[in-house]
Specification:
This protein is of the alpha/beta class. It has one domain: NAD(P)-binding Rossmann-like Domain (Rossmann fold, 3-Layer(aba) Sandwich), CATH 3.40.50.720. It is built from eight helices and nine strands. The strands form two sheets. A seven-stranded parallel β-sheet has the order 3-2-1-4-5-6-9, with helices on both faces. Strands 7-8 form a two-stranded parallel ribbon. Strand 4, helix 3 and strand 5 form a beta-alpha-beta unit. Bound molecules: nicotinamide-adenine-dinucleotide.
């Protein structure tokens, strides 16, 4: 499949470009920053600019015969707090509108987009109803960043209502991690409250890339939302101890193993066949 990856120079984008190429897909990275190592053709695009977005997704004048068949949209300001809230909101909502609309206009009906776990209520100042958190939780954006993701999911629903053959898969990623970060994971034990804000979860960038590929290869239509995290959390302290201390009284909706993720990935596993392979425990020796 010929796939254009927006934000392919970023943390999740680099892993995605590599994974898709290794799986035999034909990839273009479109980003406003050139990657350190080019694994595939690169084009500089600002996705806030609709003309540039349309042209980039349509294809290139140096490459007439190869049309884009699918788009993975990862370009964004990836978290709150690093730039002004209004800038996060502007970049993320406008670029997501432009990418979805360009795909619709061009008849590209296979779109995978990075939503975010933040919609589930991060930083969980209000107790979740139960654990593990899942897709039936009401969306609860608390920052301009998560509001931009909330509106992105709503845009996905409306675009798919306009075009019944369009598929937009919205992947609610947990906190994206590279292998190089795992050596410091055991330190989380020193301050168990430090990672409470996202229920002590994470997603290995390579497993995130696998979820993206499986979403591209999935034959569904319409707007569909999936939580994407690893099978385990970042702690070795058991879940029952963490929940008792930080969320007393919140029940478990099913049996959860001591260090199993508190973000349910059951839907992604059963529908997409997602199967994370890169637990941090394999790399940090814990
Ligand atoms: N990092 C996380 O923990 C996390 C968690 C959940 C969801 N996400 C989402 O995953 C996606 C990728 O995140 P990441 O961690 O790889 O972020 P990143 O910052 O490493 O990569 C984002 C890339 O997008 C590019 N970009 C930003 N605005 C652009 C624009 N207007 N035009 C063209 N390129 C633009 C940047 O140059 C960068 O290369 C984002 O949508 C983010 O919101 C990230």
């Amino acid at each position: 499949m010929r796939v254009l990856v927006t934000g392919g120079s970023g943390k999740l984008g680099r892993a995605t470009v590599k994974h898709l190429i290794e799986a035999g897909h034909d990839v273009i990275n479109a980003d406003h920053v050139e990657p350190e190592h080019n694994l595939c053709p690169f084009v500089r695009v600002d996705f806030e600019d609709m003309r540039a977005t349309l042209e980039a997704i349509a294809g290139f004048d140096w490459d007439h015969n190869r049309k884009t068949e699918a788009v993975v949209h990862l370009a964004a300001v990836p978290m709150p707090g690093k730039v002004a809230p209004a800038d996060v909101f502007r970049v993320n909502t406008i670029s997501t509108y432009n990418v979805f609309e360009a795909c619709r206009l061009l008849g590209i009906r296979n779109v995978v987009w990075a939503s975010s776990e933040t919609l589930l209520g991060i930083p969980y100042d209000i107790k979740p109803e139960y654990f593990p958190a899942d897709e039936s939780f009401e969306s609860r954006p608390e920052t301009s960043y998560s509001l931009s993701k909330h509106l992105g999911e709503e845009m996905a629903r409306q675009f798919c209502r306009w075009d019944k053959d369009l598929k937009i898969v919205c992947l609610r990623f947990s906190n994206v991690m590279d292998e190089s970060e795992y050596a410091s994971f055991p330190d989380f034990e020193k301050n168990p409250g430090g990672r409470r804000f996202n229920l002590w979860t994470y997603i290995d960038a390579r497993d995130g890339a696998q979820a993206i590929r499986k979403s591209l290869e999935w034959s569904g239509t319409g707007a569909e939302v999936f939580i994407i995290a690893n099978e385990d959390g970042v702690m070795t302290t058991p879940n029952t101890v963490l929940v008792e201390k930080f969320y007393p009284g919140v029940p478990f909706s099913k049996r959860v193993a001591d260090n199993e993720t508190l973000l349910s990935i059951e839907k992604a596993k059963s529908v997409l066949g997602y199967k994370p392979e890169h637990s941090w425990r394999r790399y940090a020796g814990s």
